[in-house]
Amino acid sequence: MAAFETTTELAGLPEHVFAEIADYTKAAEWNPSYVSVTQTEGTGPGLGAKYAVVFTFYGRQFDLDYEVVEYAPNDRLVLEASSKRVTARDEILVKRNGDTTFVHRLADFTFTGPLRMLDGGLQVAFEAMSKRAAEGLAELDAA
C-alpha cells in the first residue's frame, strides 16, 4: 500500500474551495496525473456520484471508477475505487483557520492480487504523483 497525506493552504473561502474540489470532473485541472475525469452517475457532486478517471502511472494510462462514499457539503469528500488490480481512497477535508482555508488530503493506493508484489516501489511513485497534485491544488483559483 502507498499513502500520502498533505495539507495545502489556499486563499479562497472554504465553500468556494470545496465547490471546486467536490466537482470532481475538474480534478484533472489540479491533479496532473489525471488525463480526464467524466461523471458517469449522478448530477454534480454529492453522495453516490461516480466518476471515470483516466490517469497516468509510470507513463501508462489506467482507468479507475471512483464513487463518492462520504459527502459533507463545504467540509468533507471521500472517494473510493476498486478494480481487480487496485483499490484507492481519496479523503479531502476543507477547513478555515482565520483568513486561510486549508485542504487536507489523505490518499492511498493498494495493488491487489499478484500485483501486491510491487507495493514496495509503489510508495515512491505514488508520493511523487501526490506531491504534484498538492502543488496543482495550491494553484486552484477558488476566490
Measured on Cα atoms, how large is the radius of gyration? 15 Å
Instruction: Give the count of structural domains.
Output: 1
Q: Give the N-to-C terminal Cα separation.
A: 35 Å
Tell how many strands the DSSP assignment holds.
7
Protein structure class:
alpha+beta
Total helical elements? 3
Q: Main sheet? A: 7 strands, antiparallel
CATH C-level class is Alpha Beta
Strand content: over 45%
As a percent range, the share of helical residues equals 10-25%
Form type: globular
* Low-confidence sequence ranges: none
What's the rounded overall pLDDT mean?
A: 85
N-to-C order of helices and strands? EHHEEEEEEH
* Named CATH topology: Alpha-D-Glucose-1,6-Bisphosphate, Chain A, domain 4
Can you name the CATH architecture? 2-Layer Sandwich
Q: Order of strands across the biggest sheet? A: 1-7-6-5-4-3-2
Question: CATH homologous superfamily name?
Answer: START domain
Structure, described:
This protein has 143 residues and is an alpha+beta fold. It has a single domain, classed as Alpha-D-Glucose-1,6-Bisphosphate, Chain A, domain 4 (2-Layer Sandwich). Helix content is 23%, strand content 48%. The protein is built from three helices and seven strands, in the order E-H-H-E-E-E-E-E-E-H. Strands 1-7-6-5-4-3-2 form a seven-stranded antiparallel β-sheet. The protein is globular.
Q: Which helices and strands, and how do they pair?
A:
Elements: E1 2-10, H1 14-22, H2 27-30, E2 34-41, E3 50-57, E4 60-72, E5 76-82, E6 86-97, E7 100-111, H3 119-138
Antiparallel strand pairs: 1-7, 2-3, 3-4, 4-5, 5-6, 6-7
